[in-house]
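Collaborator request, handled under Task 6.
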Amino acid sequence: MVELYYYILTFFWALFVSLFAIPSIIAVAHKKQLLDIPNQRRLHLSSTPRLGGLAIFAGFFSAVLTFGDIDSNTQKMLAGSIIIFFIGLKDDMVSISAFKKFFVQFLSASIVLFLSQNRITNFYGILGIGPLDEGLSYFITFIVILGITNAVNLIDGVDGLAGSLLSVALIVYAFIGIALGGEESRPVVYICVGLLGALIGFLRYNIRNAIIFMGDTGSLVSGFIISFVAIHMSNIPVPLEWQGALPVISVTAIILPVSDTVRVFLLRIFKGDSPFTADRNHFHHRLLDLGFSSLQVVFTLVGLTLFTLAFLLILLEYYSPTTSFGALVVLLMIWYTLFEKYFYARIKK
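Structure tokens returned to the collaborator:
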């Protein structure tokens, strides 16, 4: 009961810090002309501040430091997130090169990899893979951290989308952590409810007719934190029958940003372009081109996320984690393929 009380305090502290900080940030951004100017790739019509990540980070960081259970792993994650916060803030204000952003992400990921114990060490029989060699464990964890961090950054293209998808994932992770209980899950629950509160406070100003964006500060920091949480959730000790299921559920909670990033990278490669070339091939771009409003895009992708989670949980009742996750991946591939055919058929009309 005491833990639940502190979880609630953490959530509302982060919520109110974010909620009440944003009006001041908006005022200062307009005064100093720190604005995102509309262009051919931007969806907004007026110059808009992109410093919402300041409020998200302030709410999250202050809440976790005030009420959270700071173990060694959490400490290293917070250190890494501070580094990413400053590079994201600089990029939102003056723009920096992709190389510098990648280098900072590499540095932050290295802090978690080499100074904490939060690594992917076992696939628990998924895809027929068990415990990982140390070198492979470091490599896969590194790829996962960078992949999720950048997937969240890339999905942030529609008002309220990144914040809403992250909120769904955080609710799933927090629920799992609270249900499992124990010393191992408590620190990560504080992280989840802290970031959730900060994001919901931000969404008040971003979900519809956004007057502020989260920017790279918000998306990179949030993506980095989510990657840490997803990895941590996969390592929480659970009964034998759930050992393979927990990593699968953790991945499914963020499957849309990750799968959409993979899909877009493959489309670019097949066209002979660099996978890092900016375009309008993301799923949310497709929906907008079909006439969806920003709010409809958010509801569609949040609904699709909830559907995939429900579908996976049903499969896990009857099949192994490997079979269940494999079926989910096949379903997503079919969905994306059919949608692409439908999209091009509609565009040609």
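The cover message to the collaborator said: "The longest helix spans residues 2-31. The beta strands are 35-36, 48-49. Please let us know whether this matches your experimental observations."
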